[in-house]
Amino acid sequence: MVRRVIPLVAQTAPLPVPMHAVGEAPGPLHDQLQRPLRDLRISVTDRCNFRCSYCMPKEVFNKDYPYLPHSALLSFEEIARLARLFVAQGVRKIRLTGGEPLLRKNIEVLVAQLAALRTPDGAPLDLTLTTNGSLLARKAASLKAAGLNRVTVSLDGLDDTVFRRMNDVDFPVADVLHGIDAAQRAGLGPIKVNMVVKRGTNEQEIVPMARHFRGTGVVLRFIEYMDVGATNGWRMDEVLPSAEVVQRLSAELPLVALDPSAPGETAERWGYADGSGEIGVISSVTQAFCHDCNRARLSTEGQVYLCLFASRGHDLRGLLRGGASDADITQAIAGIWQQRSDRYSQLRGAGMLAPREKRIEMSYIGG
Ligand code: SAM
Ligand code: SF4
Ligand code: SF4
């Protein structure tokens, strides 16, 4: 298949930043579908040391790829300032992501700045990070010391050959497992492990992964392979529906359905019938969860995206660097969220999607 290099940011101009919020700000915000703003995902780099074919295929993300120059990235101070203003308007959970967030130099400094934030009620945030685990063994203790609460580690299989092929940089499983151990020892739990399931690629790893993590306190989550971005050559026949994952697992390890942990939680929870832990399934393709999606995404260069499948973001970096006051930025965030009506997966499921602009890459806005 011929893959074309696409520019990092959508070719089209950023969306306008509305400056007039409806109602009072700051305070809890609701969008057009009455969804609150609760979860902020912050991408701290567009670079990665892996080349997972479903996310950053080698043919596209090669040495000629136009990664962002350092000056385009939000500084830690800029990120922390925006995060504080988002928290004032309802955000309770912050997830650092990327690209590979542990590649960002001195990431612990940012973690410490975010860990110091408090909600209007004086409560600390739920501060977490998603990583491919490659640098976790080295960094777990310093991240914990900086104030990180938890980590989610991505791991697509236990078989070394399968995993090396999927990360496409020949990275061994053992090093990721060491990272998970180090995170557990450092107290960065409960740890979640995300496995993207691709039919015909790593489906045979479902049961071994469950057996490996059962009884360890690690919550394994199976994610349907999604049609994010424009470069991964996604095909529906490579999606293994979560219902089939649950069916295959329960044939070997009996499962019972568990209640959802919180509104807006993407994973459907299942417990092992013998009480040895739980797993989750994230059915982004076969069962849309847009109705209570409470996530905003801040890209590496300071654009706010309101949906994983969006093509364009709202440029907050322009406001930051143009000398806007906290009050101006607060109004902008409120206006952006209050105009939101995105529900891509739901519309895709209902066959109601019109032709659209090229979508942004997952490595740019984070998972
Ligand atoms: N590099 C880090 C990592 O891999 O954990 C953080 C960024 S990565 C974009 C965040 C999450 O998105 C990972 O768990 C990854 O497996 C998931 N992901 C990336 N592309 C995906 C796709 N096409 N479908 C489903 N999940 C995907
Ligand atoms: Fe890198 Fe994570 Fe994307 Fe894999 S999923 S290429 S580790 S950003
Ligand atoms: Fe949220 Fe967009 Fe995913 Fe729907 S498709 S759950 S709105 S990120």
Automatic annotation (TrEMBL):
Q: How is the cofactor bound?
A: Binds 2 [4Fe-4S] clusters. Binds 1 [4Fe-4S] cluster coordinated with 3 cysteines and an exchangeable S-adenosyl-L-methionine and 1 [4Fe-4S] cluster coordinated with 3 cysteines and the GTP-derived substrate.
Supply the CDD domains for this chain.
Answer: Radical_SAM, Twitch_MoaA
Chain sites annotated for binding [4Fe-4S] cluster 1: C48, C52, C55
> Which reaction(s) does the protein catalyse, per the Swiss-Prot or TrEMBL entry?
GTP + AH2 + S-adenosyl-L-methionine = (8S)-3',8-cyclo-7,8-dihydroguanosine 5'-triphosphate + 5'-deoxyadenosine + L-methionine + A + H(+)
Q: What EC number(s) does this enzyme carry?
A: 4.1.99.22
The family database entries (Pfam families) matched by this protein are listed as: Mob_synth_C, Radical_SAM
Relate the assembly described in the record. Monomer and homodimer.
Q: What is this protein called?
A: GTP 3',8-cyclase
Q: Which organism is it from?
A: Pseudorhodoferax aquiterrae
Instruction: State the taxonomy lineage.
Output: Bacteria, Pseudomonadati, Pseudomonadota, Betaproteobacteria, Burkholderiales
Source gene? moaA
